[in-house]
Amino acid sequence: MGFLDRQKIIVTGGAGFLGQAVIRKLRERGCSEIVTPRSKDCDLRSSEAIERLFKSTHPTMVIHLAAVVGGIGANRENPGRFFYENAIMGIQLMEFGRRYGIEKFVIAGTICSYPKFAPVPFREDDLWNGYPEETNAPYGLAKKMLLVQSQAYRQQYGFNAIYLMPVNLYGPGDNFDLSSSHVIPALIRKCLEAKEQGSPEIVVWGDGSPTREFLFVDDAAEGIVLASEQYNKTEPVNLGAGFEISIRDLVDLIVKLTGFGGKIVWDHSKPNGQPRRMLDTTRAKREFGFVAKTSLEEGIRITIDNYVRNRLKKSQTA
How far apart are CA 194 and CA 260, in angstroms? Predict the structure, then answer.
């Protein structure tokens, strides 16, 4: 038996976008004992609920993916909530993992923890060299505190916690709610709805100049599972695809792939967010052999096809 297939694993956020992909990868590796607590049954903000979870399931490992997330708009509207809920969930889960003597605790952090003007590509060693971009700093710093906790717990208790930083994710099953979605699903939905309704234009936030890096969700899940199997060090690790694309070029790509023929209106009154994002992925490749395999165009095409199919199913069953 391998390391993972003899574990009883709690996957928080297991019903979510990334969580479902991680669970598929775990099952491919023979993991049969996977616990996926749902928020309606187990409020991870509550220490009592977490203690009940550990007592009733007796896990040997936790993969902590649950998070309160959103795009720039959601971050601006909920800075206090995003800080508190992301911090308290992770802090308490790790503490109970330590108390119950689990073998490994895997944390999905965020690249929002990086300084606003970190040199590109972002290297893990630059993580503390400045303050994050203001609109998502509360979320980014809450997640960053889990890195501090993991390193402190390893130092004091010998607790095996690892900290991974996936770049912006996208793919089938993403959040397409325009009030809280990230840029790729939001653009896909805007373009398809405008095309269907015959709208002459769509509005996009900012001026299109920032650059971003995007990682297909199945690739991210593979990276998390590889690290869960093989990585046992204190240093944080980037998970990315190793490229950057401007938002303007991203819009052009999604317009092409959705077939939207209208005008793009840039709303300059809205924030751009961090100027550039691109990760140095050297450490992930060196430590556990992770290299992203899905090209951006292929991944977006898969995402569009999946979204269209799901909308068609919903309309047929409505």
Answer: 7
